Amino acid sequence: MPKGRIIKALSGFYYIIYNGEMIQCRGRGVFRQRKVSPLVGDFVEFEFSGQKEGYILSIEERVNELVRPPIANVDQAIIVASLKEPDLSLNLLDKFLVMVEANSIRPLLFFTKKDLLNEEETEILQRKLSYYSDIGYSIRFLSTKTDDIADHIATFVDGKVSVFAGQSGVGKSSLLNALVPDLELETNQISESLGRGKHTTRHVELIPFKQGLIADTPGFSALDFAELELEMLPDCFPEFTERKSECKFRGCMHLKEPKCAVKEAVAKDEILEERYNNYVQFVEEIKQRKPRY
């Protein structure tokens, strides 16, 4: 039985690379009955006729999967955040980091539009962002000249399956245009009235690049934690995980418990207070979400 990888999903069809050719497939009804949907990035078994059309028969077990964007078996997430126009939101950045940490995906942080900051803004943001570097995240600062950094980014995506994620309007499609000029991905100017980018990417697709695959994903300015259990949240913060053995209580949620090593680290400025406050907010969001049936 032939096997391949789904590299695009569009309008109920799944496009699979097999022996250098693109096979258009539909999912069997059994997937709908089991409430399982094939995802871009899935390795699948399928059958097809000589017309390069067929049906997906089975899906191999996934290493990981993301809900938004819907993609599976990702090696790393390149999180693109703007420093200006739109302004950087550490709250949104931390949500993206929680998403990828929960799925054991390596995050790489790229901050764009550095050249639009004045001296004071640069100093404030660099001080905050140096914290993320200190806790182990790989960080790169980019200007608005995306063509100049294409080669730089290429070294990080070669040989990997990479998903590009980030707030609308931060330049993800522009970065991919610089990497793969033939794509001619649609880009849009920032909507001044909304203060955020317009949604320009309409489907998820894996694009062959050197020895790897890269995906452009829909931009979004809001995320939820629909798939994340409350008990998992503390372990999505590396600096919390590092200290949890020092907490008095096993399973400490780092909220109102006495002798909590995380809260003590916040008081000593060893943990960024803004990031801890984001964590507390995320706890409340998970507690207040509507139950799933």
Automatic annotation (TrEMBL):
**Short name of any one Pfam family annotated for the protein:** RsgA_GTPase
UniProt GO MF annotations: GTP binding; GTPase activity; metal ion binding; rRNA binding
> How is the cofactor bound, in the record's words?
Binds 1 zinc ion per subunit.
Gene Ontology annotations for the cellular component aspect, listed alphabetically? cytoplasm
Q: Which GO terms describe its biological process?
A: ribosomal small subunit biogenesis
Q: Which residues bind Zn(2+)?
A: 247, 252, 254, 260
Primary localization: cytoplasm
* Taxonomic superkingdom: Bacteria
Q: Where does GTP bind?
A: 112-115, 166-174
EC class of this enzyme?
A: hydrolase
EngC GTPase domain spans which residues?
72-221
Enumerate the spans annotated as CP-type G domain.
63-223
Question: Is Chloroplast one of the keywords UniProt gives this record?
Answer: no
Entry EC number(s): 3.6.1.-
| Localisation | Cytoplasm
Sections of the chain in a coiled coil = none
- Cofactor(s), names only, from the UniProt record: Zn(2+)
Give yes or no: UniProt keyword Nucleotide-binding. Answer: yes
Q: Which UniProt keywords apply?
A: Cytoplasm, GTP-binding, Hydrolase, Metal-binding, Nucleotide-binding, Ribosome biogenesis, RNA-binding, rRNA-binding, Zinc
Supply the PROSITE patterns for this chain.
ENGC_GTPASE, G_CP
Family membership noted in the UniProt record:
Belongs to the TRAFAC class YlqF/YawG GTPase family. RsgA subfamily.
Q: What does this protein do?
A: One of several proteins that assist in the late maturation steps of the functional core of the 30S ribosomal subunit. Helps release RbfA from mature subunits. May play a role in the assembly of ribosomal proteins into the subunit. Circularly permuted GTPase that catalyzes slow GTP hydrolysis, GTPase activity is stimulated by the 30S ribosomal subunit.
Self-association or partners: how does it assemble? Monomer. Associates with 30S ribosomal subunit, binds 16S rRNA.
Q: What is this protein called?
A: Small ribosomal subunit biogenesis GTPase RsgA
UniProt organism field: Gracilibacillus ureilyticus
